[in-house]
Amino acid sequence: MRGLGRIRKIIDDVRSAALKFVGAALLAFCLGAAPGRAEQLPLWEAGAGVTVLHLSHYRGSNQYQTWVLPIPYLIYRGDFLDADERRMRGLFFRTDRSELDVSVFAAPPVRNNDARRGMPDLDATFEIGPTLNVFLLRSDDRKKSLELRFPARAVVAVSSSHIHQVGWIFQPNLNLDLYDAFGFRGWTLGLLAGPVYADRGYNRYFYEVDPAFATPERPAFSAGGGFGGMQAIAAVGMRSGRLWIGGFAKWDSVHGAAFEDSPLVKSTHNFSSGIAAAWVFGESSTKVEAFH
């Protein structure tokens, strides 16, 4: 009965969070600039910059690392390949109500983690897979959109000597995007929230403790697949001439996750953030009709 009550509490928390997010999203969607029109814009724009990231070692870790990395800046307004400040994707099909694309994600390696002392380090991971996006609301100028996204990605671990598949991850989410946010030209705002699900292979990679690495303080643990907690992300960006500046804040919770009892989980909540700046140094002479 205690387990059933816990499940009901998680469902109630998710429902409450979803309703609050939808309410905020609808309010933000109703604000903003007046309808615009398609413009003739460069097919591509390219630049480079630097980013500073403050990331948890992994979801559920109580340790963080700060990364300073060079980054490319690419805008591409093609029929199949579509890239902007938020993401790069390949479009398989698009209708007025939905689209199917390919999305990618990457995470840095984990080194010198106290909870994993004596265990193998974690290699960097790379994720790729299809995403079905369903438009719930979208303005005529496409500067405001509210979508349900269903990304399912295969996860591989990558090192200098080998590549091997880790597992699968599924992260359905509600996503709000605002361009020229709240009437400020050149500003973008993105809000995303939803649950995380992963298969056993993925959870084993991050949270399993093999008996060979068990200690009195770190008992053996076998990770199963299933619910992996919740996450929410807020991102903002600003483009002024050739300068682009952006930043994000991310909240993760592994409360109620299938692996929550792993001794490698040292915190049920994580907060990560990052900021970046880039200079656009070139653009194509070819123009295409696009919403800006």
Write up this protein.
- This protein starts with a helix and ends with a strand.
- The longest helix has 29 residues, at 2-30.
- The strands form two sheets. Strands 2, 3, 4, 5, 6, 7, 8, 9, 10, 11, 12, 13 and 14 form a 13-stranded antiparallel beta sheet that branches. It has a two-stranded antiparallel sheet with strand order 1-15.
- By secondary structure, it is mainly β.
- The protein has one domain (2-291): Outer membrane phospholipase (ompla), Chain C.
- It is built from two helices and 15 strands.
- Mean pLDDT is 84; it is low at 14-37.
Largest sheet: 13 strands, antiparallel
Distance between the termini: 54 Å
User: What is the domain total for the residues?
Assistant: 1
Helical amount:
10-25%
Mean pLDDT comes to 84
**Content-based structural category:** mainly beta
Reported CATH architecture: Beta Barrel
SSE order:
HEEEEEEEEEEEHEEEE
- Total DSSP helices: 2
Task: Give the C-alpha Rg.
Answer: 21 Å
What quaternary form is this? single chain
The gross shape turns out to be globular
DSSP strand content: over 45%
Number of strands: 15
